[in-house]
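TEACHING EXERCISE
Course module: macromolecular assemblies
Task: Read the component lines below, then compare them to the predicted structure of the full complex.
Student: A.B.
Group: 4
Components provided:
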Amino acid sequence: MLHSLQALDRAHHLHPFTDFKALGEEGSRVIERAEGVYIYDAEGNRILDGMAGLWCVNLGYGREELVEAATEQMRQLPFYNTFFKTTHPPVVKLAAKLCSLAPANLNHVFFTGSGSEANDTVLRMVRRYWVVKGKPEKQWVIGRENGYHGSTVAGLSLGGMAPMHDQGGPRVPGITHVRQPYWFGEGRVGEERQDPEAFGRQCAAAIEERILELGEDKVAAFIAEPVQGAGGAIIPPESYWPAVKAVLAKYDILLVVDEVICGFGRLGEWFGSVHYDLAPDLMPIAKGLSSGYLPIGGVLVGDRIADTLIEEGGEFFHGFTYSGHPVCAAVALRNLEIMEAEGVVERVRDELGPYLARRWATLTDHPLVGEARSLGLMAALELIDPASGERFDEALTAGNLCRDISFRRGLVMRSVGDTMIISPPLVISHEQIDDLVSLAREALDETA
Ligand code: PLP
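Instructor-supplied answer key:
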């Protein structure tokens, strides 16, 4: 059975972000079911899902309440669109709930099916906003190197993932990227080794330099994740965000905070923007919104933009068949209600985040570990060559090896080059955090 599933997979399934050829040779792991923080493969192995699926299964697996919400809504109204002046109860309630949880100036939501679609929406809204405001010259968007904002053409253009750009194909013009606040990778090394806070300020200054190169009245928006996720769980120095905010305010540039990963409790607040005291003009969301049970995303839109577009009138020619899908909306709403009722976010902030930070930090004594960092329930290890104490010359090898070993030993960790990442379900227990850290250490031992 297993064999035939793998053979069919190989024969017919092109996987996202995958080397098709290598997968064809090695075959896929078949994941059959999941419960709590564990996934189970077809060979019966139990694996602690240190990545919450893809940073999304925040409430963990097997939540009956979410299954019920989907079933009830499917019976009641499995689909109706929100185009053409129609709406339905789940989408209205979800929009109101999201606005009540978000920073105060965000009082409208535009729904999408994914985080990538949310960022397509962002780009269109940003550009339309400035045209309506009579400043059509404000068209440039500044993103960050190694930032990730999705895989559609707009998403990959806003993102700064070199391998995605290097594969060619179309990119949206008018988007530029500045350096990322990655102290371990960039600030700590080279001729001008800097302390983290000086480095954070320098990365913010790079935004101002780029604004002046482009023309100070030409920049529409800056887009960034509060903590870069897919880029390697890059937690910026404390100095970074206050300095960025000051630069954007100086040149009247919109702030887009991509909360697709950081939103919904990951960093110990409802949104990363709350943790860093940001007041975004636009906030793309997805993933944890429904704990990944169904695909749904959206953009929380600040008053400044929503009021302008509403007052201007005229159709916004943009939207998706599944914008505000009733079943996805019902599940997302129930997900948020459970998170509130169980105090999930507060628990991450007050208990689980600090506990993980303490336990994770114990890995710093491992010869392969150059840095162990965490915020809330997102954490990273920087692998280094024990011989030199520096990063490996040939990135990827150690990270990929460690990831595969970890999986075999029963823990999903992700590798971004030689950075190992975890982002477990927010309902993980203290004991499960202990197990996670022990498994990570075993994987490091075997990798070394
Ligand atoms: N934005 C961020 C910060 C993400 O991490 C991701 C996905 O990982 C996206 C956008 C794209 O979301 P999706 O894969 O749902 O299109």
